[in-house]
């Protein structure tokens, strides 16, 4: 694809997912907004608040003035505090206030994306508190498509409304998560040099990847087939997403080969902040 086509594809994937979120919550009764999700410490309301907050910040809106409580157990870092502040600010908002703000934010952000003059590789500030950095414009769009889709799936599981597991943003999310897989195997799990691990994912999004750890302890991932890997992990697409996004230890996961290494890998599989 050309740079313009890439930007357009990421924008369309983001649009499809964020509009799906809006449709999901449009008619939710008030008590459903407090339903817990698999995203640690967050309710349905909190996830929608997070989506609104990030898109608002990208629009240039000022961050809210708010004192964040110190006793939130799921807030364990400065980055988490940065993310949590606009979420906590909205915890008293009604269903009508939430849906109204979400819809208005989508309208504003969609207009901004349509009118954007940035080139695909132009540096754009990624708002992430202590992790803020400049990223190419196309990468910012890709990460937004991933984040919104991942949270759409959090909401769908919490509300028992499955869908969009093979949407355009799902395929973007596959690639984002796979880029972080070598580090999860080589660094987080401490797989020794020479290790090969095969990941076989089935379901709406199917793929087979091999992670190899080189002599310097660095992991690389490719589509080649390893005939005798040290470990092979076989799981469904949704299980893979939940593991890689730190949503607990869902199952089932089939393990062949070195069971102890497999357990280390699965214990450190989450690649999101």
Automatic annotation (TrEMBL):
GO terms for molecular function: isomerase activity; metal ion binding. It comes from the Bacteria. Keywords: Isomerase, Pyruvate. Residues 173-264 form the MDMPI C-terminal domain. It holds the Pfam family MDMPI_C. InterPro entries: DinB/YfiT-like, Maleyloyr_isom, MDMPI_C-term_domain, MDMPI_metal-binding. Residues 15-156 form the Mycothiol-dependent maleylpyruvate isomerase metal-binding domain. This is Maleylpyruvate isomerase family mycothiol-dependent enzyme. It comes from Streptomyces kaniharaensis.
């Amino acid at each position: 694809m050309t740079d313009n086509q890439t930007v357009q594809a990421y924008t369309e994937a983001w649009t499809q997912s964020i509009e799906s979120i809006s449709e999901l919550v449009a008619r939710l009764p008030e008590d459903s907004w407090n339903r817990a999700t698999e995203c640690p410490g967050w309710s349905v309301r909190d996830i929608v608040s997070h989506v609104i907050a990030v898109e608002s910040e990208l629009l240039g809106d000022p961050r809210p003035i708010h004192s964040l409580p110190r006793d939130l157990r799921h807030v364990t870092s400065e980055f988490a505090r940065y993310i949590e502040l606009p979420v906590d600010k909205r915890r008293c908002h009604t269903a009508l206030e939430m849906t109204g703000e979400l819809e208005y934010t989508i309208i504003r952000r969609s207009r901004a994306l349509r009118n954007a003059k940035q080139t695909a590789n132009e540096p754009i500030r990624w708002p992430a508190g202590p992790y803020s950095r400049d990223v190419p414009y196309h990468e910012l769009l890709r990460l937004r498509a991933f984040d919104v889709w991942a949270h759409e799936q959090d909401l769908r599981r919490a509300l028992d409304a499955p869908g969009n597991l093979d949407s355009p943003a799902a395929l973007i999310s596959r690639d984002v998560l796979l880029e972080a897989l070598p580090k999860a195997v080589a660094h987080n799990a401490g797989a020794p040099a020479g290790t090969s691990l095969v990941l076989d994912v089935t379901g709406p999004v199917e793929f087979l990847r091999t992670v190899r750890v080189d002599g310097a302890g660095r992991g690389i991932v490719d589509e080649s087939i390893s005939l005798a890997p040290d470990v092979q992990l076989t799981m469904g697409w949704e299980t893979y997403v939940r593991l890689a996004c730190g949503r607990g230890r869902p199952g089932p996961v089939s393990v062949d080969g070195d069971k102890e290494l497999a357990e280390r890998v699965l214990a450190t599989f989450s690649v999101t902040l």
